[in-house]
Amino acid sequence: MTHSVPLWNKSKSEADLTIKPPHDLGLPKAKLITVPWDPLCEEVRWALTRHGTPFVEYSYPWPLHIFATLEYSDPIPHKQQTEVPIFVNYKNEVYKRSSTDIFMYLYAHSFNTPLKIYSAPRALDLQEYFHKNLTPAVTRIYLSIILSSKKLTQKYLIGNTHLNTLRAIQATTWPIIRIAMYFWFGLSQKKIECAWADIEIVFTRVEDELANQGGKYIAAQTFTAADISFASHATFVLFPNDEDDENSENDAFGAIGCIVPSLKEIPKNVSEKVRKLRGRVAGQHAMKMWMNERGFASKPDGYRSFPSKYCKAKQDTNRIHKK
């Protein structure tokens, strides 16, 4: 019989809840264009929050996000901009090449926080390692799980779309979008099996790095971009969700920038794999990072907001569901 692996330790004596929000510099809000379940978008949300950067998130369903990204394309014949995240700072400067570029910007402007995400040079190397080996693997696994169930698809892909117009387009064209996702993300059974193998390799690498650093952080004796990147990616294979903890007294994972299913919702054969990953040293490290380093106890909403039109659309959706 498989025993449940606890998600986190509720003991405040063992949890580092002392991090404080950076000083507010009074800067105008930045803009972040995302796809909700993209791991690179989640790591940028995390970094923005920890740097005290207020931002408005424009969240789009895949592939309708290209309606927002194309306007940031370079002139033809350059490749058109179809990738997220895209970050536009308060000076209207655009960072679109990679999430690493956004991290570099934050590191160069981290005057109001003691956090230095690249204080250890190896943090960047490890972050790029995660991008190469973990981004495609966790994306493939997450989407294969969600798309295997109509209920999960409706709840975590279609239902999370903010704007009514985009939700209508997505619902109408869903059969085509679903086929496109299988093709674009390589969701064949063979590639999914390879993705699980890649996860095991990366977790082993993380455990080796943790052992070298004494067990608390991956790349140094302090919290760095490597911890943010790994824990952000791990979100989509460990499925952090308060519903899984019978002793949950509050929304411990409320700071995470997207909602993922609980173990009760995903197929049993997958949940067994997830439980094993949660029980590993690397899995426990990701959970500690979510609990202790993702947000601020005194600022539970972080620095993220949404356009007012998103809020209205969400209210309309809730009203429909209640009828």
Question: Your description of this structure?
Answer:
The chain is mainly α and 323 residues long. The protein has one domain: Glutathione S-transferase Yfyf (Class Pi), Chain A, domain 2 (Up-down Bundle), CATH 1.20.1050.130. The protein is 50% helix and 5% strand. The protein is built from 13 helices and 5 strands. It has helices at residues 39-50, 66-69, 99-108, 121-133, 135-147, 150-158, 164-172, 174-184, 189-213, 225-238, 268-279, 281-293, 308-322; strands at 30-34, 55-59, 86-88, 94-95, 304-305. Helix 1 (39-50) packs parallel to helix 3 (99-108) and helix 5 (135-147) runs parallel beside helix 10 (225-238). The radius of gyration is 19 Å and the shape is globular. The N and C termini lie far apart (42 Å). The model is unreliable at 1-6, 8-17 and 315-323 (pLDDT under 50).
What is the structure about, briefly put?
By secondary structure, the protein is mainly alpha-helical. The chain has helices at 39-50, 66-69, 99-108, 121-133, 135-147, 150-158, 164-172, 174-184, 189-213, 225-238, 268-279, 281-293, 308-322, and strands at residues 30-34, 55-59, 86-88, 94-95, 304-305.
The helix/strand order is: EHEHEEHHHHHHHHHHEH
Shape: globular
The span between the termini is 42 Å
Amount of beta strand: 5-15%
What is the CATH topology descriptor?
Answer: Glutathione S-transferase Yfyf (Class Pi), Chain A, domain 2
Mean pLDDT: 88
Helix content: 40-55%
Strand order of the largest sheet: 4-3-1-2-5
How many E-type strands?
Answer: 5
- Poorly predicted sequence stretches spanning 5 or more consecutive residues: 1-6, 8-17, 315-323
The quaternary organization reads as single chain
Taken together, the total number of domains comes to 1
The name of the CATH architecture is: Up-down Bundle
Protein name: GST N-terminal domain-containing protein
InterPro entries: Glutathione-S-Trfase_C_sf (IPR036282)
Organism: Physocladia obscura
